[in-house]
Amino acid sequence: MEGQGIREFFLENRAAFEERLLAEAVNVRDKIEEINAIGNINLLHNAHKLVLYIVENREHEMITFAKVEGEAWAKYSLTLAFKLEWIQSVRRAMWNFLYNYDRLRGNESNREEFFALEKQINEMVDHFLSCFFLSYSQFKDRLIQVQRNLVEDLSVPIIPVTEAVSILPLIGVIDSYRASTIEEKVIQAVGNTRIESLILDLSGTANMDPEVIQHMLKVIEGISMMGCKTIVTGIRPEIVRQMIRSGLTFEHRAETKGTLQQALADCLTIQV
What we know:
Blueprint: H1 3-12, H2 14-24, H3 32-39, H4 43-55, H5 59-75, H6 80-104, H7 111-155, E1 159-160, E2 165-171, H8 176-193, E3 197-204, H9 210-225, E4 229-233, H10 237-246, E5 255-257, H11 260-271
Parallel strand pairs: 2-3, 3-4, 4-5
Antiparallel strand pairs: 1-2
Helix pairs in contact: 2-6, 5-7, 6-7, 8-9
């Protein structure tokens, strides 16, 4: 069975193949227009493209196509169950057409030819699915990482006041993960900008575990070694009580002020 002959057979019977495919894809056929509208993905056109890649054994082009498809489905958050059903329907429709192609030629394949053809087609379809899902997963992972980086930047908003003074207002719960993020962002910012004073405002933070307080004290010690003084403002009573119980203190590590306004007034007066 020659590849070119199979290709011509599929092209000549394109409409019949679509009809068979739609009959197989029971849950997806009513979603074709919706998927095209959301992600500009033409399922029928892409099915014909995939079939030709498979019957002509154009593996490299099929892999590239699978990666593009995976990214598109991930980008527009299309339902993976629809894609899986669609590809399996393509597989079944292909087998139906290959059976008819062989029968109409009046030369049914022998067992060796049948298993060789089955192996080629199934491996290509499975390879397509594997590359598709890998591409989908990698795109989602990159998207999650970008969103996580954005959230981390927003959770550590270092605001420059002057070339020498910056403010870090912390709001909400600070757990060990966020404390580690604060450490990374603050040390990097001090190293890049060479600020001399960092005002750490805790007025928006109601509670911190002793482990987190200990971590924050180490961050303050670290930036002190880089020549940056820390001024802590707005410490809430709940945190003060936690520090007293735990025997922790900002003494000798940072200067403390009642409010952010007081700290800013002092820093700007000194600079003037």
